[in-house]
């Protein structure tokens, strides 16, 4: 990971941003509307996740929403209404920008933990899906509801990412119907990594993110990269990619420091007469 930029002092315009102990917390903060996205917030999310590639002071990211909801998707008045009046070049520029958010989340080296409560719909569901892990409450409701507004469910990478997480059949049902996936379903199907009490959700997600931040930075970045890349590889190609990645990791200071720490903990053994 390049480390020539710091983001602890970044001042977000369209959401909240805080960095503590190398864990960044990104909070979608329009609780009165269930934290919908706007053209501007999409663009800022894209640019911030791209910048994380060069941030040496952030090792993990938690993304959440304020006021008991995660994100209701694109703002009906500030996005969907204007989209109905746009020509095709403008529409394509917008849909490419939303996809760029997911690409930037996938490409940034820091593992991302989504902390999901309440409504998590449309583009909000895609933000959760694009995270590397998902913690949720019992009241979390995840819906890929694009078909309910007359669109294809193939949006922002949904038809690639969702089947990988929950399987083709389950993904097909959710994408065609646009119905909400309950927290129980999400947990049973592997979408959610953990179900938390509402007042413990952010703390538990942050605690896990902190364990990541305390681990091997380069090694975690390499793990994330190969988790994404190996879907397009055969077994032989994947094994070779992992062999190369592991050899590179072995040349890092993290590997040597881990060995030295392990060796220092061992009790010397002496042969008796």
Question: How many helical elements?
Answer: 11
Q: Which strands sit side by side, in order, in the main sheet?
A: 1-2-3-4-6-9
Based on CA inertia axes, which overall geometry fits? globular
Low-confidence stretches: none
Strand proportion: 5-15%
Query: Can you summarize the main beta sheet?
Result: 6 strands, mixed
Specify the helix fraction band: 40-55%
Distance, first to last CA: 52 Å
Structural class: alpha/beta
Rounded to an integer, what's the Rg over CA atoms?
20 Å
Following the backbone from N to C, one meets helices and strands in this order, namely EEHEHHEEHEEHHEHEHHHH
Q: Mean of residue pLDDT?
A: 93
Number of strand segments: 9
Would you write up a description of this structure?
There is one protein chain. With 273 residues, the protein is an alpha/beta fold. 47% of the residues lie in helices and 14% in strands. It has eleven helices and nine strands. The chain has helices at residues 39-51, 76-83, 88-107, 123-130, 158-166, 168-177, 183-188, 201-213, 217-229, 235-250, 253-265; strands at residues 16-20, 23-28, 60-65, 112-116, 119-121, 133-137, 141-143, 180-181, 194-196. It has a six-stranded mixed sheet, sandwiched between helices. Helix 1 packs parallel to helix 3 and helix 9 (217-229) runs antiparallel to helix 10. The mean pLDDT is 93.
């Amino acid at each position: 990971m390049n480390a020539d930029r710091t983001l602890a002092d970044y001042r977000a315009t369209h959401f909240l941003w805080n960095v503590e102990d190398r864990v960044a917390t990104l909070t979608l903060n329009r609780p009165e509307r269930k934290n919908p996205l706007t053209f501007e917030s999409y663009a800022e999310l894209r640019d911030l996740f791209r910048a994380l590639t060069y941030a040496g002071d952030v090792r993990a990211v938690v993304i959440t929403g304020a006021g008991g909801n995660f994100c209701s998707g694109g703002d009906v008045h500030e996005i969907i209404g204007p989209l109905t009046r746009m020509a095709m070049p403008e529409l394509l520029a917008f849909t490419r920008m939303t996809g760029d958010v997911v690409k930037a989340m996938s490409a940034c080296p820091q593992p991302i933990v989504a902390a999901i409560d309440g409504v998590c719909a449309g583009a909000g569901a895609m933000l959760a899906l694009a995270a590397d892990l998902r913690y949720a409450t019992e009241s979390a409701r995840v819906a890929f509801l694009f078909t309910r507004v007359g669109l294809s469910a193939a949006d922002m990478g949904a038809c690639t990412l969702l089947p990988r997480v929950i399987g083709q059949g389950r993904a097909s049902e959710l994408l065609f119907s646009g119905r909400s996936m309950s927290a129980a379903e999400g947990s049973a199907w592997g979408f959610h990594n953990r179900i938390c009490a509402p007042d413990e959700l952010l703390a538990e997600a942050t605690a896990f993110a902190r364990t990541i931040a305390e681990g091997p930075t380069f090694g975690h970045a390499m793990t994330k990269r190969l988790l994404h890349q190996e879907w397009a590889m055969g077994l032989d190609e994947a094994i070779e990619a992992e062999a190369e990645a592991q050899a590179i990791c072995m040349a890092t200071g993290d590997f040597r420091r881990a060995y030295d720490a392990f060796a220092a903990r061992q009790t010397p053994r002496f042969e008796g007469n």
